[in-house]
Amino acid sequence: MRYLSVCSGIEAATVAWKPLGWEAAAFSDIEPFPRELLQHHYPDAPLHGDFTTIGAKDYGTIDLLVGGTPCQAFSVAGLRKGFEDDRGNLTLAFLQLLKRKRPKWVVWENVPGVLSHDKGLTFGSFLGGLGECGYGFAYRVLDAQYFGVPQRRRRVFVVGCLGDWRSPAEVLFEPESLSGDITPERKKGQDVAGTLTQGFGARGVDAQQIADGNYAIAKCLTKRGAGGENRCADTANFITYGLAGNTIDRKPENGGNGTGVSEDLSFTLTKTDRHAIATKSAIRRLTPLECERLQGFPDSYTKLNDKTTDSKRYAALGNSMAVPVMKWIGERINLIENH
Question: Is residue 64 classed exposed, middle or buried when 0-12, 13-18 and 19+ CB atoms within 10 A define those classes?
Answer without folding.
Answer: buried
